[in-house]
Amino acid sequence: MPAEGVGSDPRRRTTPARWRVLGHPEGMLAYQARCIVEDHGWTESTVVDRHKVILGRSGAYRRRLNGRVELSDATSVLLTRPGDELAVAHPFGCGDSYTCLEIDPVVLAARPDAEGWLDRGGWSGSSDAALDLAHRLLVAEFRRGLDGFEMAERLHRFLTHLLRHSPLGADEGLDPAVRRRPATLVAHRRLADRAREVLANSGFTLSLDEVAREVGSSPHHLSRVFHRMTGSSLTSYRNRLRVRAVLDTLAEPDGRPLGALATEYGFADQAHLTRVVREQVGHPPARLRRLLTPAVETRTGSG
């Protein structure tokens, strides 16, 4: 029932609902909500204050967006813009649950595929099976625990999927012949190499937005170019670097706690570190520490 008041934290909303913040990388906020039905009639119209993606998860309700009444259910997708007027009603007697992404205009302005959303208006429609699965997998990953860098890149990749699904996505793709121009390829290789340099020397403390600013790009463009040039996402490449740094540290005899290593190398928590390390090398950090730490030499006296 996304007719709540404005604000950066959904937990400040006044509409009765149970909120779960999933992540808040720079310029974006992702959260889930399950509505509590107290009144089956229409809520008072509220003015949406930011660009939002509202993805149905369960239940059904009616919404009135800028005077147009439609049914929303678990297949529904809604993209709103600041200034839209929204009200909802629950004539069916059931609550609903949904995922919401709030996105600052500056983030969308850096994405060529979001031009239609910024310039022409919002969109309401339905998700297909692929988009719905991508949405649910995104939520599952956020709930498992991700650092801000990976959250940001995953949200940008999901927005790419979503905007291609909607009629609002501008055709950001260049003609293949243009993409193969030597000057374009050289520029893209330089951008990817510069990003690798920044990642390797950042101490894993920079966010995706900060890396993009360092190389003079937008997060969306950098993510696309990096993947095209290297065959790897920025997150995957960064994880490879982080795991190698973790392995070096695990081989040291000081035995620092895994929680401290997680903080040092920018993981969300110890569980996140363990999961990424296991995915990369097939063993958890505790076992790797035993395998990599040299045996302590024992000295025996000559008598």
Automatic annotation (TrEMBL):
Pfam families: HTH_18. The keyword DNA-binding applies. Gene3D superfamilies: Homeodomain-like (1.10.10.60). Keywords: DNA-binding, Transcription, Transcription regulation. Residues 189-291 form the HTH araC/xylS-type domain. It comes from the Bacteria. SMART domains: HTH_ARAC. This is Helix-turn-helix domain-containing protein. It comes from Micromonospora parva.
